[in-house]
Hints:
- Helices cover 40% and strands 20% of the residues.
- By secondary structure, it is of the alpha/beta class.
- The protein has two domains: 147 residues, Rossmann fold (3-Layer(aba) Sandwich), CATH 3.40.50.1110; 45 residues, no CATH class.
- The protein has a six-stranded parallel beta sheet, sandwiched between helices. A two-stranded antiparallel ribbon has the order 4-5.
Amino acid sequence: MKFYFDGCSHTWGAGLKTPELSRYSKIVSDHFGAEEHNIARRGGSDKRVLRNLLATDLEEYDWIVVQLTCRNRTEFFCDDNKKWIQINLETQRRKGKTSSRLSDIKNRFWSYYWRDIYTEELGRINQLTIGHAMRNLLKDKKHLIIGISNHGQTVQAPVDYNFTNFESHNTIKYKSERTNHPSEEGHKQIASEIIKCISI
């Protein structure tokens, strides 16, 4: 048995002393005696999660669990570096520029994008579109799509479960670290809910 997991830092296990041993994907996989395949990435975007699903032979996995991320994140392929670059509005606001890895012209473009093009409505529609694309892609597979809401943002796409570190309607509240990532206890709570759903 093999389980596939993808998402951002929450699924990766940021804030844990030993993410590979105590994150919820490991707890769920161990519970079912399954091999854990976790390709989550800190700072990852919904576009990245969908891209990975499209690029993966999903037939080798018994269950697929993907997590939607902050809707203002995106990515693009950088020809200079020959790799995908993850970018987000939080970094832009915090550092005043998108990435030291990018050329000045690309930084100027993304500064313009966040300032003059991106809106909360655009982020909402993007996440809704990606969420429905994931659901359609996975319709013949055993899967869960989960949302983890923080920084006051709620997931806009239809999800099977939404975990949050703030009080909200129809969510499962996890215990959180100062970083807004689930604590070890929070990962146990999330794993418990996923196990219940998979066991039905």
